[in-house]
Amino acid sequence: MLKHTDNIIEVKDLVKKFGSFVANDHLTFNVKKGEIFGFLGANGAGKTTALRILSGLSYPTSGEVKVAGFDVYKEGEKVKKNIGYMSQKFSLYEDLTVRENIRFYGGIYGLSNKYIKEKTESLLERLKMKDIQNSLIKSLPLGWKQKIAFSVAIFHNPKIVFLDEPTGGVDPITRRDFWEMIYEASDLGITVFVTTHYMDEAEYCDRVSIMDQGRIEGLDTPGELKKQFNAKNMDEVFIKIAR
Ligand code: ATP
After folding, report:
1. Is-above-0.85 flag for pTM?
2. Within 10 Å of residue 176's Cβ, how many Cβ atoms?
3. Which residue of 47, 167, 212 sits with most ligand 1 atoms within 8 Å of its CB, as the best mutation to test the pocket?
């Protein structure tokens, strides 16, 4: 269910080309504040390309893109200050401990020592990871690492967090735990923009966009998309679009 009405992401006619190849073909969509927005598409559909533009990591070829009220062309640094980003490739330091990783990222975000210390304690408590706070990241299971990576991505209370396939390769129980954390972040008012390959996860989103070959071919609530494509579940919607 949509919780807010203000748009926190506004994208109009976004085009991204690599040479003559069009990776994002006139994307137009808005994301509302506090929304959990699912960004779906087959491999190579253009999701990561769009996500990198929204995060201020690369520039569009043309189009208008506003994130957290800032223009990604002119105010990229302000965009970066207001977002968290969890990349598809694992984003923690394997040779640092859990606590050291949290400390490190807190420092990058320019947070005070006092804030980092207090927040680290409550975070370790929430993650039930007090006992392993001094373990090296590389010694932990993937699902645990992903939970830490997500926590670190929202450590500075960003307005929006971008998650690029955060649950890829993670077991179903840990995936559920992960989604609990997503809901908690959303309840705190953080907008969640998430890409996934798991169609059951698409059902957990407020709204879902489905991309195919650089274009958005469907965008609505899971319920409306199922109606629109006359499909029993999101899997079927996805297959109909990708075909
Ligand atoms: P996946 O689910 O595999 O991550 P995706 O939907 O995120 O896929 P993108 O990574 O955005 O897809 O890639 C979209 C297309 O753009 C692909 O064909 C890819 O090869 C191409 N592409 C991405 N980055 C570049 C680049 N820097 N130079 C040239 N082509 C690129």
Report:
1. yes
2. 14
3. 47
